[in-house]
Amino acid sequence: MKLKSLLVSLGLIAGAVTAHAEEPLKVGFIYVGPVGDLGWSYEHDMGRKGLEEYFGDKVKTTFVENVPEGADAERVITQLAKAGNDLIFTTSFGFMNPTVKVAKRFPNVKFEHATGYKLDKNLGTYVLRTYEGRYISGVAAGMMTKTNTIGYIGSFPIPEVIRDINAAYMGAKSVNPDVKMKIVWANTWYDPGKETDAANALMDQGVDVMLQHTDSPAPLIAAEKRGLRAIGQASDQSKFAPDAHIFSVRDDWTPYYVKRVQAVMDGTWEAQDFWGGFQDDMLTLASINPNLPADVRAKIDATHDAIKSGAFKPFTGPIKDNKGNIAVAADHSLTDVELAQVNWYVEGITDEIPR
Amino acid sequence: MDSDLIVQILFAAVKTGTPLLFIALGEVICEKSGILNLGQEGMMLMGAVVGFLAAYSTGNMGFGVLAAMLMGSIMSLIFAVLVLQLGANQVATGLALTIFGTGLSAFVGAGFVGQTIQGFPPIAIPFLSDIPYIGRILFSHDILVYFSFGMTAVLFYVVNKTRIGLTLKAVGENPNAANAIGIPVLKVRYLAIMFGGAMAGISGAYMSLVYTPMWVENMTAGRGWIALALVVFASWRIGRIMLGAYLFGLASIMHLVLQGMGWSISPNLLAMLPYVATVIVMVIISADHFKEKLLAPRSLGKPFDPRNMA
Fold this sequence. Notes:
The complex is a heterodimer of chains A (355) and B (310). With 355 residues, chain A is an alpha/beta fold.
């Protein structure tokens, strides 16, 4: 992989020498993982490919994969900017500060940073409403569990993950008042071995439906081995667990990337803080398992439609946190700014958020 | 905590400990011959990727395991030539081997990421698996776990009771003396290193064929390093390595189990238990110089060149 990034860098330098104004719009991507992780980076790369398919010769894309979050990222982003890219997508939370720095040095290049919150004149952010998919996952899990215990593998206790845990629990509770949720923190985004351990630890304790906020399909494989159920994350993970798989909540970045590239071409691009979900076709339910009971399937579809149409927003009050305080007032739906700051568990989750 | 849950946890500890057991068994044989190979992680990753590729393309799991063992030995052979023939520094060469293996395995496996295979099925051993508690914990695993039991027993016998074991220890304790009485020191070390490589390979195969039957980059996630600590923890004794592997396995899943039960104890704190245990053992060992000499192979890490002999 090192060799690959080296080749890409060399290509970038070569590109910088020959770049001139008549060329197609150049779009650069930087990924934190390998494109083959079958999760987060994989879907971003699918978005990049979708971009090429949609615009054909009018765009030229470059990507650099496996870039560690830190000093290396700043170097790679700088190279992408120097190579004449007009628009650069930096696709991991940890690329935030490097992107901010490089954006200041290249005021004519446009930058977009995924899942961050720092904006500038030429730096926008974009976030997925993964909590919408998580709510539907909770509904499905709440109906499918026989032990009334569902499990959730967390990665890191950041607002995005805590928000999604709440959404999943509220979804489950809405269909099953007796449901309990056990949460385990794996402290990793991607470690199939550890994710397997976490899934087994939960299933040993009576969990029979697994949800995960880590990126490998390992928990699905573990659930399949035991004849239990699980829900896929980020990409379609059905093939890893043909029987266990309920559905996968798939990220689809293509619509967003197409829209933003079009904006640059039209000269209408402006830095913004964008949140996209089912309504924007950036989240989809992939491979809903035909082996689900009809009532579960119907409920999944109904919840999905309500969220997609905008009729239902999961974080609509009154919602209490698990300390008994009012977290969301009645008739209020959390705004995007408020969603970015969720640091409480909803009433009914008995755990504490690790500090 | 009911007894069922305890049995489940111990069962999982044996499973988690098995890759550690394989790789530590290989490393302890290598170290007994006086060679410190820090390339475990690299050899393990190469074993994992080649084992997966072989099993995926042929559909034969046994073939995958053999290919992984072969790959591990080839990797260790590179190390052996550099260290034994060319007198390269063992620590630096071992580290280089890990970095090399990490990169090469990612390169080789790039096209196979996201593929999946049917892992080894569990086989309950008749009669033995019916023993209450013990049967479930020890005798309802897959074939590789039983192989690790057998390997431990064989190595325990060979190292402690046979001439081969004596030769191995002689080479590791005092290569000059061993050379003087006609033991082919380099040959013994070559074989020990390659055995270590094969064990690292099978340990990798356990990860990619059984534990999480798929290949992803860097999937061993530092287990090779834990195994190095484990060898010290077990003070170079075969029996203690087995016990230690399961203890380390238990420690690495315990923080997940406790979280599921609602304990609000920092997972980071628990995840570091195996390392704390190793440091404590090292302190105990080093506190007594006589003990230290008794335990660690005396020429560990020191190069030996027969051409320099007077």
